[in-house]
Write a structure and sequence with these properties.
Largest sheet of chain A: 7 strands, parallel
CATH architecture of chain A: Alpha-Beta Barrel
Structural class of chain A: alpha/beta
Radius of gyration of chain A: 18 Å
CATH superfamily of chain A: Metal-dependent hydrolases
CATH topology of chain A: TIM Barrel
Strand order of the largest sheet of chain A: 1-2-3-4-5-6-7
Number of strands of chain A: 13
Largest interface: A-B, 27 and 27 residues
Number of domains of chain A: 1
Helix content of chain A: 25-40%
Number of helices of chain A: 12
Strand content of chain A: 5-15%
Order of helices and strands of chain A: HEHEHEHEHEHEHHHEHHHEEEEEE
Oligomer: homodimer
């Protein structure tokens, strides 16, 4: 429910790695320039389906537009398009390619109202510009205000990383959340506690052990408002292993076996399907064609790097063995 | 008062960069293998003085031994050597090359008692094995216990990074501290708040804005128990810009101009000399020959990399201009 496929050669490399195993994905619009118009959205969707190749038939890109105080007329036109799914809101400068994001939530109110009326979900990168460990917590009052002011607006807190964010799910009926694979597994210790590990560096940054525990417990218990969103975010290897490393973990090709392993170890395999897709189908009323994927507890080696079209991307668990495999 | 010169080619590259501008430095013993014996300490000192070249005459390496529950007899022999300064204690595994460090503080008590009797300072890397942001705070009870149990033992909390550690200086007469240049300037935001910046990654990791503020205020106000210790910690460039980056910031060649700039900006230039050397001379009764260094507020370009003897090290402020220069 939260995927970066990038564009160009990177999109050609990464798209089949998601399209093979997922029936659909919410495609993030923070390209350069961001996807703000129908034309660019349609063209991007076409490039994604071309890149999906043989899997295009069974893969639905759920397209998003970059939140830009869109008018009601624009939103009405958006809703009329089958390919359109939601608006993605970035506070200006909060993450990769988000400089054109929102600076004034007051000015965005008419758009929120129209989205609420039209039933268009609002997906939010919820971080302040404060100290890196506090950014999500500092954004929670904004979620609260939005949820109260627009009680029929479906608000999704994307890639939550804290126990505090999780608590909002129970506080407001109209607030939902996605969580990534890495935030169920790692803390800041894994990024910067021993050696510095750029391939585990992402935004929002991995937080404290008690945050990870709370997120994992919610996922394993089958929290009905928590959805898997990998936030798989490929960057070329040379932009990760350098002196100004870009934020993002590339998890798309390892997500399903890694989740199967995690849920199996915790005797929660019965909760996996709803976490990966069922909750999202129910929450958003998605009608993407179902896809059957068979996972088995047999080892699966993860490549050190995914290469193609001149791109090199290092996945999470690079060079390791996962305990589970996708077998069909 | 806290310097890593490394060994071999790296030592040849880094030593003159300190020896030119400092009259002495406390040399850390965490080589591979660590400096635990007089023979290796003496040999290391000889290599350092050779590397210092023309500056050897005016540079005193204050040698440390790696804390290994040394006997009273060993400590008596150590104290008799002019080149010996202190023991450096590492909790096992706390930082670079510290695997042979202390695992049981109870077993170390006889050594602490002998050090106290003999007037040998105890320099401590004070971190627990907990969550990276909590490690220093979790170690503070150990400092408290040591300070209370051995009230005549001079304990130096090396490279402190938190406001909480600072407060121990006022709590115990026999507790002192060093602080690095980078911990007066940066927080975790500078390491991982935007892009990931491996050249600012060190142990202990930079902490919160309120920690930096407290450390800076103490330094600028001339706290009599706080000493500059650069913890300048060179690593070859390929071990910093990679997928498992080593911890350490290389500040030795930029420390004096950067500190002059920082103290000047805050109208505290009159406090700089005591911070850089005076406090340490008084606290430890050092008798290293004084060295005159003249700093001026004129721009000084920092090289992108220091090269020599086949080594490449990237300093803090690489490629930037510092506002102050060492002019003589």
């Amino acid at each position: 429910m939260h995927l970066h496929l990038r564009d160009g050669d990177m999109c050609r490399l990464t798209t089949p790695l998601s399209a093979e195993y997922f029936s659909g994905a919410v495609i993030m619009p923070n390209l350069v320039p961001p996807v703000t118009e129908f034309d660019s959205m349609d063209a991007y969707r076409t490039r994604i389906l071309e890149a999906a190749g043989a899997h295009a038939e069974s893969f639905t890109p759920l397209m998003t537009l970059f939140f830009k105080n869109q008018t009601r007329a624009t939103l009405e036109a958006a809703r009329a398009r089958e390919s359109f799914f939601a608006l993605k809101l970035y506070p200006a400068g909060a993450t990769t390619n988000s400089d054109g994001g929102v600076t004034d939530f007051g000015e965005a109110e008419a758009t929120f109202r129209a989205m609420e009326d039209l039933g268009i979900p609002l997906l939010v990168h919820g971080e302040s510009h404060g100290f890196v460990m506090d950014r999500e917590a500092e954004f929670l009052p904004t979620y609260r205000r939005l949820a109260q002011t627009f009680p029929r607006l479906k608000i999704c807190m994307e890639h939550i990383t804290t126990a505090a964010a999780l608590s909002l799910l129970d506080e407001f009926e109209n607030v939902f959340a996605t969580v990534t694979l890495q935030h169920l597994l790692i803390t800041l210790d894994d990024v910067a506690g021993g050696m510095l590990r750029p391939h585990l560096f992402c935004k929002p940054i991995a937080k404290r052990p008690e945050d990870r525990s709370a997120l994992l417990a919610a996922a394993l218990s089958g929290h009905p408002k928590l959805m898997f969103g990998s936030d798989s975010a490929p960057h070329p290897r040379h932009k990760k292993e350098c002196c100004g490393c870009a934020a993002g973990v590339f998890t798309a090709p390892v997500a399903l076996p890694a989740l199967a392993d995690l849920f199996a170890k915790n005797n929660a395999l019965d909760k996996l399907q709803d976490f990966v897709g069922g909750n999202a189908r129910r929450i958003y009323g998605l009608k993407t064609a179902p896809k059957k994927v068979v996972l088995e507890d047999k080892p699966c080696p993860v490549p050190a790097v995914y290469e193609g079209y001149g791109e090199h991307v290092v996945p999470m668990f690079a060079g390791e063995n996962l305990a589970w495999s996708v077998v069909a």
